[in-house]
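Quick one, tokens below:
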């Protein structure tokens, strides 16, 4: 009797789809978790962090148990801290403004006679207190050596500068008439050396050198037209700026 052949089962070629579907499901779950972590609320995350620290704290430690505040109490506490910081910043800014105004008043009193005849101007800007001195008050035409009367005037200014610690910027300015001398090939050199002369005198009178900066601007920051003799005379000047400290930015409480 002939042996009956066993029926051959065909291979299932689609079984790989099961593994592929599992992989896609796990990948989807992974990205969902990553998105959830990236968009976590900062306040709730801090609460969660405190809770973990409390849960895993060793019972033998003598540290007090961490207190988890409700979210609304955390927001109120954070707002209170921000308000206190902003109040401190506002108070510091008020004191700085008072100091700058007092300095401007003192400079105006010291330079009163020169302010009256228009040789000096004292003002306050966003950068600080600005003292503009006409170059004819300080130097001979085309020269950068301070005159004796200028030394006395700037010595009085230095005494006021010693009363604070703000940075000081000294700028030399000229008119647009070119200068060609062995010592000053152009107005750049003349303006820079004039500013340096003022800075050196301040240092000699006790002002800390690290507070001072000398800058030559030549004729490129005029305050008047160079088309007239009066305008050119106004443009030949030295500007001393007592720089106001950069204000600290107020803080804002994060939006929950």
């Amino acid at each position: 009797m002939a042996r009956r052949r066993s029926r051959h089962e065909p291979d299932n070629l689609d079984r790989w789809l099961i593994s592929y579907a599992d992989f896609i499901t796990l990948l989807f779950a992974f990205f969902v978790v990553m998105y959830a972590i990236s968009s976590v609320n900062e306040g709730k995350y801090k609460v969660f962090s405190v809770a973990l620290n409390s849960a895993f704290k060793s019972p033998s430690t003598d540290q007090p148990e961490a207190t988890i505040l409700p979210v609304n109490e955390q927001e109120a506490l954070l707002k209170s801290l921000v308000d206190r910081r902003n109040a401190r910043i506002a108070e510091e800014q008020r004191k700085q403004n008072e100091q700058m105004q007092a300095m401007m008043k003192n400079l105006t009193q010291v330079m009163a006679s020169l302010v009256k005849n228009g040789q000096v101007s004292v003002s306050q800007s966003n950068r600080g207190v600005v003292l503009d001195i006409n170059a004819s008050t300080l130097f001979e035409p085309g020269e950068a050596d301070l005159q004796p009367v200028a030394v006395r005037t700037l010595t009085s200014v230095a005494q006021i500068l010693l009363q604070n610690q703000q940075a000081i910027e000294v700028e030399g300015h000229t008119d647009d008439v070119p200068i060609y001398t062995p010592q000053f090939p152009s107005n750049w050199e003349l303006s820079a050396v004039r500013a340096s002369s003022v800075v050196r005198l301040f240092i000699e009178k006790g002002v800390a050198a690290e507070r001072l900066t000398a800058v030559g601007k030549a004729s490129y920051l005029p305050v008047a037209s160079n088309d007239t003799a009066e305008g050119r005379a106004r443009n030949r000047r030295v500007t001393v700026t007592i720089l106001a400290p950069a204000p600290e930015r107020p803080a804002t409480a994060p939006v929950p």
